[in-house]
C-alpha cells in the first residue's frame, strides 16, 4: 500500500520529470518512510543497536552509507558496520567493523535502510554527518616543498560501454604542464588489485610509463605505495593519508571524485554524463562532505578553462 501511494504521489506531483529520472524521486520518499520505524531507538532510547551493511559501489557508500554510519556513531546508536574489503580506515569510528564483501554490486546500491540511495531531488538529509577523514589522517610524512595537487583519474567501463569521463593523455599533458611549477603533482589511478572491484571493468590507459618518460616530476601514488613510508595498511589507507595533506584535486566521475571531495579545498570534477548533473549533486551534495569548493566540467575544454581560472597560481 505504501509503495502504491508513493508511486501515485510522485506521478501526480512530478509527472513532468523524465520517466528515467522519476524513480529516483520514489526512492527518496521510500527511504524517508523506512526511517520512521527507528524513531524511538534513534531519538528516545539511544542505545547501540544499529548494524549497517553496505556492499554497493564506492560512490554511494561515500555519499550516503558512510555519513549515515557516522551519524549513528555520534548519536550513540552504532553497534556494527559491514562493508567491502579495504574499508577499515574509512570506518575508523566504528566499534565493530567487518570487511565482509569481496565485490561491490549494483544491487547493493539499493539499500533502503540508508537515508538516501543514489541520486535525489532533496539533499536536506537527517541522520547524515560528514566524516572527518582529513582531520583523522593528516600527517607530517607526505609533505613537500610545494603544495600537493592530486590528479585522481579513472579509465573504466561506464554504463556497460567504453570509458567516458577520464583524463586522456592530451589533457593530462596540458594540466601537468600548466601546474607543475605551482604544485607537487601526485597522479593516482588505482590498479585493480589495490581496490575492491565492482561491475565496471578497468582498462589500461597506458599512462604510467608515459608519465615517467614525459613528466618525471609527477609522483605516482603507486610508487608511494611501494615505498609506504607511512606504513599504511592498505592502498586505501595510503590514499587517505595523502589526500588528507591535499587541498587541490582534479578528479573524475564516480567514487574517484567523491573521495576527493572529502578533504576540503578545491576539487575539479570531469563528468561528461550521468544523473549527478541533472540532480545538482556537485552543487548540493558533494560540498556537504567537507565544505570543499566543487567545480564541474563536462568537456576537456571546460577542464582547461577551470584549471586556468582556479588552479594556476603564477599566470
Could you explain the architecture of this structure?
This is Glycosyltransferase family 61 protein. It comes from Filimonas effusa. The protein contains 13 helices and nine strands. The protein is α/β, with parallel strands linked by helices and 315 residues long. The strands form two sheets. Strands 6-5-4-7-8-9 form a six-stranded parallel beta sheet. Strands 1-2-3 form a three-stranded parallel beta sheet, with helices on one face. The protein folds into two domains: 2-111, no CATH class; 136-310, Rossmann fold (3-Layer(aba) Sandwich). Strand 7, helix 10 and strand 8 (266-270) form a beta-alpha-beta unit.
Chart the SSEs and their pairings.
Elements: H1 2-13, H2 19-36, H3 39-45, E1 50-53, H4 58-75, E2 78-84, E3 97-101, H5 133-137, E4 148-152, H6 169-179, E5 184-188, H7 208-214, E6 219-220, H8 221-227, H9 235-244, E7 248-252, H10 255-260, E8 266-270, H11 275-278, H12 281-284, E9 293-297, H13 300-310
Under the CATH scheme, which architecture of the largest domain would be assigned?
A: 3-Layer(aba) Sandwich
The overall strand count is 9
* Spatial gap, N to C terminus: 62 Å
**What Rg, in angstroms, do the CA atoms define?**
20 Å
Oligomerization state: single chain
Please indicate the count of domains: 2
Q: What is the count of helical runs? A: 13
User: Helix coverage percent of residues?
Assistant: 25-40%
Strand order of the largest sheet: 6-5-4-7-8-9
Strand-pairing-aware structural class: alpha/beta
Query: What kind of sheet is the major sheet?
Result: 6 strands, parallel
Protein name: Glycosyltransferase family 61 protein
Amino acid at each position: 500500500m505504501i509503495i502504491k501511494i508513493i508511486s501515485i504521489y510522485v506521478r501526480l506531483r512530478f509527472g513532468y520529470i523524465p520517466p528515467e529520472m522519476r524513480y529516483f524521486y520514489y526512492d527518496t520518499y521510500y527511504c524517508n518512510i523506512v526511517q520512521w520505524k527507528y524513531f524511538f531507538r534513534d531519538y528516545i532510547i539511544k542505545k547501540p543497536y544499529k548494524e549497517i551493511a553496505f556492499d554497493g559501489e564506492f560512490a554511494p557508500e561515500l555519499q550516503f552509507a558512510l555519513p549515515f554510519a557516522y551519524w549513528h556513531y555520534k548519536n550513540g546508536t552504532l553497534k556494527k558496520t559491514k562493508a567491502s574489503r579495504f574499508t577499515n580506515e574509512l570506518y575508523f569510528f566504528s566499534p565493530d567493523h567487518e570487511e565482509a564483501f569481496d565485490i561491490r554490486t549494483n544491487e547493493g546500491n539499493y539499500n533502503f535502510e540508508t537515508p538516501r540511495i543514489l541520486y535525489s531531488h532533496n539533499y536536506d538529509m537527517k541522520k547524515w554527518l560528514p566524516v572527518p577523514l582529513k582531520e583523522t589522517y593528516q600527517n607530517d610524512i607526505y609533505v613537500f616543498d610545494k603544495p600537493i595537487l592530486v590528479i585522481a583519474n579513472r579509465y573504466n567501463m561506464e554504463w556497460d560501454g567504453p570509458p567516458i569521463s577520464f583524463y586522456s593523455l592530451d589533457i593530462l599533458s596540458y594540466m601537468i604542464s600548466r601546474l607543475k611549477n605551482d604544485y607537487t603533482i601526485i597522479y593516482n589511478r588505482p590498479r585493480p588489485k589495490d581496490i575492491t572491484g565492482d561491475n565496471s571493468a578497468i582498462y589500461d590507459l597506458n599512462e604510467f610509463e608515459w608519465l615517467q618518460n614525459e613528466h618525471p616530476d609527477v609522483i605516482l601514488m603507486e610508487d608511494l605505495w611501494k615505498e609506504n613510508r607511512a606504513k599504511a595498511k592498505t592502498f586505501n589507507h595510503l590514499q587517505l593519508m595523502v589526500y588528507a595533506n591535499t587541498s587541490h584535486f582534479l578528479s573524475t566521475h564516480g567514487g574517484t571524485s567523491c573521495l576527493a571531495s572529502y578533504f576540503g579545498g578545491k576539487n575539479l570534477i570531469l563528468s561528461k554524463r550521468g544523473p549527478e548533473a541533472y540532480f545538482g549533486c556537485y552543487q548540493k551534495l558533494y560540498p556537504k562532505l567537507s565544505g570543499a569548493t566543487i567545480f564541474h566540467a563536462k568537456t576537456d575544454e571546460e577542464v582547461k578553462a577551470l584549471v586556468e581560472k582556479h588552479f594556476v597560481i603564477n599566470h
